[in-house]
Design goal:
The structure is a homodimer of 318-residue chains. Chain A is an alpha/beta fold and 318 residues long. Chain A has 13 helices and 14 strands.
């Protein structure tokens, strides 16, 4: 079975770990979000790709969900001693090495997809991890600060400002000119199932879908497309998805997110048991739906969610 | 008193620390060797500049004479885990931060002299540290390996190969097209005294003198130029200077190095007490000479050497 998964960071990575347990023999291709990539200290940092790679490769800091286990922060402390920031982005020493290798390879002319493959040669994530695009795309968030509208990098909005002011708009800068990375459209076309993990519908999956050609390829693949709601009980399971949903005029509910994707894209949508009341509305919009536990408290819980998604995909196919 | 010092790495840095103690009120400009700079992992590493900066700024690893104190090696271990080398060059985590800042600034368009000034704003070395040039110069060493002549980067010859094969030639690649960094010729022209610490006469001071204009400026400055022999008892005090001296046909003796510089450049030359027998030969070549202890066993010993050099400069002037 060939499964294509669109993934953001923590939610996507944890779901993928469950999927690998639920379907150990499946051939999984992950299309990773690169809209939250950022250049820091002259280095190219790809937080979502790395979170997937570290999580599936056994190097993740389990407690925080991102970054490396057994991490130290000597480089960051030294950079601060030089007065070189930003200090709000927590890069550890082990993590720095990944960004140094990536930046060196990019500087030598390799595209991000080739660099990601090279990094994965070490981590052996057990999936094929593709960046959504080799072209530079940066998600910017428009905010009103001191009476003035400003665009800030997504990481600045998310990490430094902790989404403390409303997002007026979310723009994947560069997406309109970008091309899907090599292998992305081929993987979608060859897929038996396409899954949307409980990742952020705006800045993770939404950004992937903003790369011209990807949304169309998924809609036309003719295979079941099943998603899992990142919203449970009218609040994001983690992160601050409600802030960026508001920017695109979508309510922070399991049903609203399903309808935002729409029946043209989505065949099935799993909601949490606390949102069982939304199932009828979602089905009314032409999207198969069911309420199941959607909290990834551990790998077993994530695997159970993956099984539910695959089961729903089979129902859609039948 | 305005003192200009041409400095390589460890020997130069330790001498400078002594000089600062010996002449605390002097205005010291250091012209640092950049011929042993190397690009590693996409980062610009300037070993000699950093050794001076760390030593005078209180951040040096005293035992080894280079690198940072309280150093850790997480980044290096991670790079090795990615299969990215070289592993033979020992960059620690704290040290990496310096190279990251430098590389970022160079990438943003600042010349190396401005970058060095910015780094020194943190370290406050108490001297004005100038790279010999903002242009890229890389010392290469020609060696015969498996019956074939090859050029290797100086660091590869020195650190990886530990100078275990004879150096057939030493070439400061790019020097002939390079210009002295801003301030270098001005400092030489304004100097009251010019000192050559016991640094390597070929790959440290020799490389600085290879930048067109610097040797001429020193020769024409009309002020005392006094050096200290890095060769004691026919052997380098540290390092493997004899290997690269052989490549330029100069014996590894205190007298031969003085004569290599020559009376056109050098006014005074201190040799170690064990080399007292060489004083007559050196004076015979028109260079004032005296035998004094030249082992920098501690800062006091280095300060005593600096005082001897300044005293000799006054004798030359008189």
């Amino acid at each position: 079975m060939r499964i294509v998964v669109l993934a953001g960071g923590i939610g996507g990575a944890r779901f993928l770990r469950g999927l690998k347990r639920a379907a150990p023999d499946a051939d999984v291709t992950v299309i990773g979000n690169t809209g939250d990539d950022i250049h820091l200290f002259g280095l190219k940092v790809c937080p979502d790709l790395d979170t997937v790679m570290y999580t599936l490769g056994g190097g993740i800091n389990e407690e925080q969900g991102w970054g490396r286990t057994d991490e130290t922060f000597q480089v960051k402390a030294e950079l601060a001693a030089y007065g070189v920031g930003p200090e709000w982005f927590g890069l550890g020493d082990r993590d720095f090495a990944t960004h140094i290798v990536r930046t060196q390879m990019l500087g030598a002319g390799y595209p991000l997809s080739a660099v990601t493959e090279a990094l994965c040669a070490r981590w052996k994530p057990g999936v094929r991890l593709l960046p959504m695009s080799d072209d530079r795309i940066e998600t910017h968030v428009a905010v009103d600060l001191d009476g003035e509208r400003k665009a800030v990098h997504f990481q600045e909005y998310w990490v430094r400002m902790r989404a403390s002011v409303p997002a007026q708009a979310v723009v994947p800068v560069g997406a309109d000119q970008a091309k899907p990375a090599p292998g992305v459209l081929e993987a979608v076309a060859a897929a038996d199932v396409i899954l949307f993990p409980p990742s952020n519908p705006v800045v993770s999956i939404g950004t992937i879908l903003a790369v011209p050609g990807i949304r169309e390829a998924i809609a036309e693949a003719g295979v079941p497309v099943v998603g899992l709601s990142p919203i449970v009980g009218n609040a994001p399971v983690r992160g601050m998805a409600d802030k960026v949903l508001a920017a695109i005029g979508v309510e922070a509910t399991a049903a609203a997110v399903a309808l935002h994707y729409g029946s043209g894209l989505l065949d099935g949508w799993l909601v949490d048991t606390v949102d069982a009341g939304a199932v009828a509305d979602i089905e009314g919009a032409g999207i198969r739906s069911r309420a199941v536990p959607l909290l990834m408290t551990d790998v077993d819980a994530a695997a159970a969610m993956a099984r539910e998604a695959l089961t729903m995909a089979e129902e859609v196919r039948a």
